[in-house]
Amino acid sequence: MRIVIDAMGGDHAPECNVDGAWSAAMEWKDTQIVLVGDQAKIEPLLKAKGTAVPDNLTVHHASEVIDGDDEPVKAVRRKKDASMVVAGRMLKEKQADAMISSGNTGALMTTGLLVVGRMEGIERPALAPMIPTLDGVGVLALDLGANMDAKPEHLAQYALMGSLYREKVMGISKPRVGLLNVGTEPGKGNELTKLTFPLIEQLPIHFVGNVEARDIMDGTCDVLVCDGFAGNILLKSIEGTAGAMFKILKEQFSQSLKSKIGAALLLPQLKGIKEKMDYSEHGGAPLLGLSSLVIKGHGSSDANAVKNAVRQTRIALQSHLVENISKEISGK
Amino acid sequence: MRIVIDAMGGDHAPECNVDGAWSAAMEWKDTQIVLVGDQAKIEPLLKAKGTAVPDNLTVHHASEVIDGDDEPVKAVRRKKDASMVVAGRMLKEKQADAMISSGNTGALMTTGLLVVGRMEGIERPALAPMIPTLDGVGVLALDLGANMDAKPEHLAQYALMGSLYREKVMGISKPRVGLLNVGTEPGKGNELTKLTFPLIEQLPIHFVGNVEARDIMDGTCDVLVCDGFAGNILLKSIEGTAGAMFKILKEQFSQSLKSKIGAALLLPQLKGIKEKMDYSEHGGAPLLGLSSLVIKGHGSSDANAVKNAVRQTRIALQSHLVENISKEISGK
Description:
The structure is a homodimer.
Chain A: E1 2-6, H1 15-27, E2 32-37, H2 39-47, E3 57-61, H3 72-78, H4 83-92, E4 98-101, H5 105-116, E5 126-127, E6 130-131, E7 139-142, H6 152-168, E8 176-181, H7 191-201, E9 206-212, E10 223-225, H8 228-253, H9 257-265, H10 267-277, E11 285-288, E12 293-296, H11 303-318, H12 321-330
Parallel strand pairs in A: 1-2, 1-4, 2-3, 4-12, 7-10, 8-9, 8-10
Antiparallel strand pairs in A: 5-11, 6-7, 11-12
Helix pairs in contact in A: 1-11, 3-5, 4-5, 6-7, 6-12
Subcellular location (chains A, B): Cytoplasm
GO cellular component, one term (chains A, B): cytoplasm
Keywords (chains A, B): Acyltransferase, Cytoplasm, Lipid biosynthesis, Lipid metabolism, Phospholipid biosynthesis, Phospholipid metabolism, Transferase
């Protein structure tokens, strides 16, 4: 297994990527890990470790970096030697089996489309992060931002890909697949969801029908299918509401001495809730529908998150995720 | 001013409607209030008050009732003598100036469209409830469920109507109007929002541009424009997340004696937060774009909520809301 890591992507790059890659290389000796990025910045970090660099960890130089505020398409087209683009090219040229990047999300989706390339039969790849649920398990939601104007056929492919990912990589047998909608009855929704429903119904997956936004956190499904626009509204509403509630809690709890004491007594519980609501705790998000595996790490990934992304990528490769999706989509 | 109240609509009908109408009639002597519904059920409630029925409160008999689980279009078409439909007809026939109903939302929107009728120049009326914000002021969001497949022209009309409502009825001068979108930059979004943006820009309102779902609770705008599908996802995500967080709070706070004591000390604050997050605290939702004023009360309305809906309706009538919208839309 050969996994490339975009060493320059993410808020804590390159340190977190180097440290995470190092730990991963130490743990999984059967995996070749390549750090792609500025050699002058990466090498000193490796040297600082004080011991010999693991045999299965190498550096591939790339002179440019795509920043968080770069315009995605322009950046990918112009910065031909950016770490993210070089990593994508290595995937395309079969020098690697999978790539991980915690960099600019839009640029990574563009790299996926323009550099790595789509899987045959897939018109629009999808970004599939986890949304938190009350039971701590989470739901895989796709598409979350790659495809703003989805067609029913795209959503049906998302259902299939999401189900396979949840089964093969996350070990859930017969994942419950739901369609994000405004009501649970089959006839509900806008034109897109009304046309999508019968298409998903015909697929060889466990379709549980329409799911309302308010029921998602109760864990009513394992895979949630939606277009990129609605998915973005959903994810950011959850994020915004949780954030707002924490703000109010903080404000209210410092109102009086009595409430301050109460809050102090509840500190461990309040921390636990914050963690439960934090969807960034749930690992990297796959970009599904590409010719090779691409995993998007969170922008705020630390070394541990990078190592976990490698763990996730290994399972996906071992379970032949891409080949399985390809077989279902185009029969090849 | 003549206001009809659908006496049979809502979870606590007809009691709450009778009590609310009574209080409103007592407070506002210049307002004629008509309770529409089953006389055999309404009269005993009025008699039970023990004092003479106010002169400005009358009953108009209607033999049928539309239930919460009735299929909206069928119910409105078939139950010609349903309290909601009769109230709508009184509006159409100019026997009343406005109507209030806390009944089946879909049926009320259908009554608005098929019985009351649209305003000239409006293709799709919009339901405009309030969404809670951190500062307790709330944002008027439209459309929240009436129009699943909106066109850019519809959204532009929502922007205009919402701005007028917020100004005339809620007393906000130059309301800040935002467009629900996946990013704040003007070029962001799906086809619908991309085409809508320049249309709203040309309107004589205070357009603050795109607003992300996560920023809404911070009160970044006074009016939020969205299509019915995205609006439903937004509202129900907020509802679901707030509900989920209260569940986790409850669960976590009863974990140990220490946390139980903490929670007891914080009880008043926790209640305050629950109220802040409860969008049903924000009064009735107008159905904008009809030829007369229709206000949707919450299904769970109590007598006080019904009285508040009358207050809101009075302000809307006094400020000539419908005439003002009509002037802006069609120049008439």
